[in-house]
Design a protein that fits this description.
Helix content is 16%, strand content 25%. It is an alpha+beta fold and 951 residues long. The chain is globular, with a radius of gyration of 30 Å.
C-alpha cells in the first residue's frame, strides 16, 4: 500500500467540486426515506388508516402493523398475527379499508390460509378505535375464496361506489405457462379481476354481485368476473375520480404488462404475452383480446408492481397517472390516458419517474398527497416519492478527470485543497495494479462512520471517494496509468464512474456506462513486452459489489482505516474515531510477521466478503467475513456449480486445499473463476496464502484425503520427485508433472508450488506446457494464467455480446458433445428429461419454454433477471447456525423441504428454523458460457433447442 503523511490539523474545505448531477439527464423524481426508525420483514402492502394519521403495513408472514405518520416514529405496533390465528403458515398479500371505515371499522385482508390444504381468501375483520388499533381475531368473516397456487394475485381495491375489486392469479407456477389453462376460462375465478358487493349477501354467498357485472347473464360464467386473461396481477389501482381501473400484470419470460381493466375485458393470457402470441392453441374467451396499454421487455422490467392512480395535491404533475414500479429493477413509472377524465382514448403518455435500489412491493397515496413506496427485502422500509428538483446538467458533467475539481494537477495527481489521502489495511487484488485513494467532502462536513448501535455510516451530500490505479512495469519503465474510479454520493444514491487514462498518461476520459477495454503493452524485466487487456467495469458491474447489501462503501470503514482513524478525526474528515473490535481487526495479508489465520481471513474478507456475507448477493450462501468464527462460515459443503473434478470436495476442507472448491476457483481463469468480475489475472501470492492457510487448519482424520496428501499415492510421489529437482533428471521431473496434471487435485498441488515460488523455473515452464496441453478443461483452466493473453483460446469471456453467438449457425451434434463434456456446466444441474435428476428445469422443459433462440440465450446469460418462484433459491438458517440452501420442494406446518445443489432432499423442522431468506440470485451461475468459444456456444444452444424435437 502507498502511505501518505497526513497532517493532524483540520482539513481545508473542498470547494472545487465539479462532480454534480450525472453524465445523463436526471430523473424527475427521487425517493426519500419517510420513517427511518421503522423497518419490516418482507412487507407486502401499505395503506393509510382513514382519518387516523397512521399507516398500516402487512408482512408476507401474516403480521399486520400500524405506525404513526411521524418522521421520527421509532416503532410499529402489531395489530394481528394471522399465522398465530390460523395455526400455520400464511402468505398475506394485501389490505384495504371499507369506504365507510369510520362508521363500521371494517378492514379486508387477502391471504393464503393453511386450512383444507391451503386456499386464498378475502376476509372481513374489525379494527378497534384505540390510538394503537388492533384487529380482533374473532371478528374474521370469510367473504370469498379461490384455490391456492403459484400465482394468487391477491390485491384489494375499493371503488368510489363501494364495490370491491379483487385480483386473482392463474393459480399455477411458471411452467408450463398457465398450467391450468384457466386464463381464457370464465367458468372459474382464476386469472381475473373480480368485482363484488361486500355490503350484501346472496344465497349461499357472503357477498353480492353487482347487476352490471359483464358476465351476470352468461351461462356457465362466474358473475363476479369483471375482466379476465391475467397471469398474476400485482397490483391494481382504481381512479377515485373517473373509476378507471388499471393492473400491473407479471408476465412470463419476455414481457411485463400494464392493462386498463374494462368490463368484460380480455387481457389475453395465455394466448398472448403482452402483444406476442404465446399459446395459440388455447381457445379465446367470450370477448376479444385487448392489448396492454404499456408493455416492458425483460431487458427493462421483470416483475411489475401496480400502485394507485394518483390524485393527490403534493405531486400535481402526476395527477391522473397510474403509478407502478418493478420489484427487481426498482424503476418507477407513470402512465396516463390522453383523455384523462374518461380514459376512453387509445393513446397514453408514459414516462420513467426514477430508478431506485429498492425491491418495490407496494405503493399507496397518503391523505396529504404523499406517494409512499414500500421496499420488500433490501431495507424493508417506507419511502416517499418526491420531485428531484434537479436541472438537466448532464452536458456539464466532467468528461475528463482534469475537469472534476479533485486534483490541483493531474500530471502528478496532486489533490485539490480539502481532498484528503487515505490508505487501507488490506488492498483488494487488482490484477497487479497498485492503488492510491482520496476522499473528497464538500465544505467542512464529516463522515459519520458506522460503529456500535449506528449500523450504517452517514455521508455528507456530494462526498466522492477516489481510487487511482497504476500498473507497475519491469526494468526502468514508469508505471502505466490505468484508471481512476469515483464513487459519488448525491441525493441519497451512490453512483460509480470510471475515467480511463489516455495512452500518454496526461489525462483520463470518462468511461461509458457499458465499460471499456484498453489494450496494453507491459514492459517486463528482460525488456520484452507483454500484451494485456485492462477492463474498466460497466456501471452495473460496479454495482455488483457496491450495493445495499454491502452498504455501498467498501474501503472507507473502521476496520480498513484503523491506523488512521485518529488522524482522520483530527483532520475533521470523520466525526468520530470508532474502536475496532478484535473480531473485526484486519492485517496485511502479505506481512509474514502476522498470524497466518489473521492474514488469510483478512485477504478473504476484502476480496470475497463483499458478496459472501449474510444478506450478500452470492449464489452460494457461505460467508467469508472476518468477524465470523470459522465454524460459522458455512463452508462445510459443496456447491451447485460443481466440484471441477475434485473428489469428496467441499468449499473448504480443513487441512486439504486440494479438495477445497474455494482454492480451485481463485486459482483459475474463465468459467468458475472467483472473483468473476473485476479481475482477469490470478493472484499468485493470494493463492499461495490461501493454500497455506487451508493446509494449516485442523483436519479430521479421513480416508478421503486428496491424492497429493495421501501417503504413497502417485501424486505424493510425484511431488516428492519435484522436491528433489536438484538431483532428479529432466525426464523424471516431466514424468512427475504428467502424473500431477492427470487430476484436478494433483494440478492444484503443482499450482500451489508454482504460485508460491517453490518450483524451479525450468519445472514451471514444463508444467505450463504440459498443463495447457491436457484435454481436461478442469485442469487446463488452471494453467492458462501463465499463457500470454494473445496465445490463449478465444473464449467468450465475462462480457458476452449475444449477437456474436446468434450470428453463427449452430450444430446440434457438436452441441450435444459439448453438453456432455467437461467444458460446459449445464449438465451439473439439468438432465435432458429426468426431473428427479435435475436441480432446475430439464432440457426438454427449457426447450418448450423458450421457443425463440435469442430468448433462451438471454436467460442463460442473465439467469437472475427473472426467477420464477419454484426455481427461487432459499436459505434456511437453523437455530444452531447451520445454513442450508436450495429450492423449496414442500412447505408444511411442521417443516420445510429443500432440494440442495447436491440433489439432496433435506427436511428441516420449523421448530429448528431461525430464519428463511429468499435469494435475489438464481442458483444458475452467471457467465456459464464464458469458457466456450462463440461457435461452441452456438452449437450448445442449437442442441438444447433440439431436445424434444426428435433428437
Amino acid at each position: 500500500a502507498v502511505h501518505f503523511a497526513a497532517a493532524d490539523e483540520p482539513r481545508k474545505p473542498w470547494t472545487t467540486s465539479q462532480i454534480k448531477g450525472a453524465p445523463y439527464p436526471p430523473a424527475p423524481y427521487k425517493i426519500v426515506l419517510a420513517f427511518p426508525g421503522v423497518r419490516f420483514e418482507n412487507p407486502t402492502c401499505i395503506e393509510e388508516i382513514p382519518h387516523g394519521n397512521r399507516l398500516l403495513v402487512t408482512e408476507i408472514g401474516g403480521k399486520v402493523f400500524s405506525l404513526a405518520k411521524q418522521a421520527d416514529v421509532k416503532q410499529a405496533d402489531l395489530a394481528i398475527d394471522l399465522a398465530k390465528v390460523s395455526g400455520g403458515q400464511v402468505s398475506l398479500f394485501d389490505a384495504d379499508f371499507h369506504p365507510r371505515f369510520l362508521e363500521n371499522r371494517q378492514l379486508f385482508l387477502c391471504y393464503v390460509h393453511p386450512g383444507n390444504g391451503g386456499h386464498t381468501r378475502v376476509s372481513r375483520f374489525t379494527m378497534t378505535r384505540t390510538t394503537r388499533p388492533t384487529i380482533a381475531a374473532d371478528s374474521e368473516q370469510v367473504i370469498i375464496t379461490w384455490p391456492n397456487g403459484g400465482h394468487n394475485g391477491g390485491c384489494l381495491e375499493f371503488a368510489k361506489n363501494g364495490y370491491l375489486y379483487i385480483s386473482t392469479g392463474d393459480g399455477s407456477g411458471p411452467n408450463p405457462p398457465d398450467g391450468l389453462t384457466t386464463g381464457q376460462d370464465v367458468s372459474d375465478l382464476l386469472g381475473a379481476v373480480l368485482r363484488i358487493d361486500v355490503d350484501r349477501t346472496e344465497a349461499d354467498r357472503a357477498y353480492g354481485v353487482p347487476k352490471d357485472n359483464p358476465f351476470v347473464d352468461i351461462d356457465g360464467a362466474r358473475p363476479e368476473i369483471w375482466a379476465y386473461g391475467l397471469r398474476n396481477p400485482w397490483k391494481i389501482g382504481v381512479d377515485a375520480v373517473t373509476g378507471n381501473v388499471f393492473a400491473a400484470d407479471n408476465g412470463w419470460e419476455t414481457w411485463e404488462m400494464v392493462h386498463r381493466i374494462v368490463p368484460g375485458g380480455n387481457c389475453g393470457w395465455p394466448v398472448m404475452e403482452a402483444r406476442a402470441v404465446l399459446r395459440s392453441e388455447v381457445e379465446v374467451g367470450p370477448t376479444p383480446i385487448i392489448p396492454p396499454i404499456k408493455d416492458h421487455s425483460h431487458s427493462e422490467a421483470n416483475s411489475v408492481i401496480g400502485g394507485p392512480v394518483y390524485r393527490g395535491s403534493k405531486l400535481p404533475d402526476l395527477d391522473g397517472s397510474f403509478i407502478y414500479g418493478d420489484y427487481l429493477t426498482g424503476t418507477i413509472w407513470a402512465v396516463r390516458p390522453q383523455n384523462e377524465h374518461t380514459g376512453d382514448g387509445l393513446s397514453y403518455t408514459h414516462r420513467t419517474l426514477v430508478d431506485t435500489d429498492q425491491r418495490i412491493t407496494s405503493f399507496t397515496e397518503g391523505s396529504q398527497g404523499e406517494l409512499y413506496v414500500l421496499d420488500h427485502d433490501f431495507t424493508g422500509q417506507i419511502y416517499e416519492l418526491a420531485p428531484s428538483g434537479l436541472a438537466d446538467t448532464s452536458a456539464d458533467f466532467p468528461r475528463r478527470l482534469s475537469e472534476t475539481g479533485l486534483f490541483a494537477s493531474v500530471d502528478d495527481l496532486h489533490p485539490a485543497a480539502g481532498v484528503v489521502p487515505y490508505w487501507v489495511t488490506v488492498d483488494r487484488w487488482m490484477d497487479g495494479a497498485k492503488a492510491r485513494r482520496w476522499v473528497a467532502i464538500p465544505g467542512d462536513a464529516q463522515v459519520a462512520l458506522a460503529s456500535g448501535t449506528m449500523k450504517t455510516a452517514g455521508y455528507p451530500e456530494g462526498t466522492v471517494f477516489v481510487k487511482h490505479l497504476d500498473l507497475p512495469q519491469g526494468g526502468d519503465a514508469r508505471p502505466i496509468r490505468l484508471e481512476t474510479q469515483l464513487l459519488h454520493f448525491e441525493n441519497g444514491v451512490w453512483k460509480p464512474y470510471s475515467y480511463l487514462w489516455d495512452d500518454d498518461g496526461k489525462d483520463a476520459r470518462l468511461v461509458d456506462s457499458i465499460g471499456a477495454n484498453r489494450a496494453l503493452e507491459v514492459a517486463q524485466d528482460g525488456g520484452q513486452k507483454l500484451e494485456r487487456t485492462w477492463r474498466a467495469s460497466a456501471t452495473n458491474e460496479c454495482k455488483l459489489c457496491h450495493n445495499a447489501g454491502s452498504s455501498f462503501v467498501l474501503g472507507f470503514v473502521p476496520s480498513q482505516l484503523e491506523t488512521q482513524l485518529a488522524s482522520l478525526h483530527a483532520q475533521k474528515v470523520v466525526a468520530t474515531a470508532p474502536t475496532v473490535s478484535a473480531s473485526q481487526k484486519l492485517v496485511d495479508p502479505h506481512d509474514v510477521a502476522q498470524d497466518l489465520n489473521d492474514r488469510a481471513r483478512s485477504y478473504l474478507h476484502i476480496n470475497c466478503g463483499m458478496c459472501h456475507h449474510p444478506g450478500g448477493n452470492a449464489i452460494v450462501s457461505f460467508y467469508l467475513n472476518r468477524e465470523l468464527p470459522f465454524n460459522k462460515l458455512n463452508t462445510n459443503k459443496s456447491t451447485g456449480i460443481g466440484t471441477f473434478g475434485m473428489r469428496n470436495a467441499k468449499l473448504i476442507v480443513p487441512g486439504d486445499p486440494y479438495r477445497s472448491v474455494l482454492m480451485y476457483r481463485i486459482s483459475k481463469l474463465g468459467y468458475g473463476r472467483m472473483p468473476y468480475i473485476g479481475s482477469q489475472v490470478v493472484d499468485s501470492a493470494g493463492m499461495a496464502l490461501v493454500s497455506q492457510w487451508i493446509r494449516s487448519l485442523s483436519d479430521q482424520p479421513s480416508e478421503s484425503a486428496s491424492p497429493p496428501i495421501a501417503a504413497d499415492s502417485a501424486e505424493a510421489k510425484a511431488l516428492a520427485t519435484l522436491a528433489r529437482s536438484a538431483v532428479a533428471k529432466r525426464g523424471e521431473r516431466d514424468a512427475a508433472i504428467e502424473v500431477l496434471v492427470q487430476s484436478t487435485e494433483g494440478s492444484l498441488a503443482l499450482l500451489a508450488k508454482m504460485h508460491g515460488g517453490s518450483l524451479p523455473i525450468e519445472d514451471a515452464r514444463a508444467a505450463v506446457a504440459i498443463g495447457n496441453a491436457v484435454t481436461n478443461t478442469n485442469v487446463r483452466g488452471l494453467f492458462e494464467t501463465f499463457v500470454p493473453e494473445a496465445k490463449r483460446r478465444a473464449r467468450l469471456g465475462p462480457n458476452i455480446d449475444p449477437e456474436v453467438i446468434l450470428s453463427r449457425t449452430g450444430n446440434a451434434a457438436r452441441g450435444q458433445l459439448i453438453f456432455f463434456s467437461d467444458g460446459a456446466r449445464c449438465k451439473a444441474c439439468h438432465d435432458v428429461r429426468d426431473t428427479d435428476k435435475s436441480l432446475g428445469s430439464t432440457l426438454q422443459d427449457i426447450n418448450k419454454k423458450y421457443k425463440i433462440r435469442g430468448e433462451m440465450l438471454q436467460h442463460i446469460l442473465k439467469p437472475s433477471s427473472k426467477i420464477d418462484e419454484p426455481l427461487a433459491a432459499y436459505s434456511v438458517v437453523t437455530a444452531g447456525g447451520k445454513v442450508i440452501t436450495g429450492l423449496i420442494l414442500e412447505r408444511t406446518d411442521d417443516a420445510i423441504v429443500l432440494k440442495t445443489a447436491e440433489r439432496m432432499t433435506i427436511r428441516v423442522p420449523r421448530a429448528e428454523i431461525d430464519a428463511l431468506q429468499k435469494s435475489p440470485k438464481s442458483l444458475m451461475p452467471d457467465q456459464i458460457l464464458s469458457d466456450l468459444t462463440a461457435q461452441e456456444a452456438a452449437d450448445l444452444l442449437e442442441y438444447i433447442g433440439s431436445v424434444g424435437s426428435g433428437e
